[in-house]
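User: Second chain of the day. Same drill as before.
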Amino acid sequence: MTAYAQAERSLLCDEFLRVGGDAPTLCEGWQTADLATHLVIRDGRPDLLIGSMLPVVGGWAKGQIRAITARPWADLVESVRMGPPIYSPTAIPPVDELVNHVEFFIHHEDVRRAQDDWSPRDLDAAQQRALWAALNRMARLMFRQSPVGVEVVSPQGRTRAKPVTQGGRRPAREAAELVLAAYGRRTHAKIEAIGSEEAIAALWSSKLGLA
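Assistant: Same format as last time:
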């Protein structure tokens, strides 16, 4: 089977090492060290995310998170590269691919596209199809807060993200760019939006993504 999740994880770690721990990202308020910490916690310590919001153990959990962030940069990146512990469901390759392909593609681009020297990657057709399949599954959820209809179109296909009435929008580009737009990275995605200015403005002013 394909292993795009692992490939994107590895490429992200290479990019982390290239730009350093204090480089900007497209994740608002986060530098690369913050993003790497998030990924380490997501892989193996999700209890810290929950604990940091609880009144009794919140201080302890936040201290643990700060300790992870303060680790030597190469060690922190290596922890991201190693991935989840063996007991995690995402240590199973098919689960990893389902759960982490888009996650690591997005975060890889969060680092790449926050730098001045970025340009779109030339992804192979199979990965574009895999990203399209993921977007096709999630489109209704990702665009649910749009006040206008949205039809998403790529060379890999098209899907109704939200019922289209007169004035509905149709972002059109490669699947990878559409995934970035759907996850709130529209200003750094190479897409085309077709429709009236009012409808396009309404679409992009709405909150897109899983939140």
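The beta strands are 150-154, 157-162.

User: Great, on to the next one.
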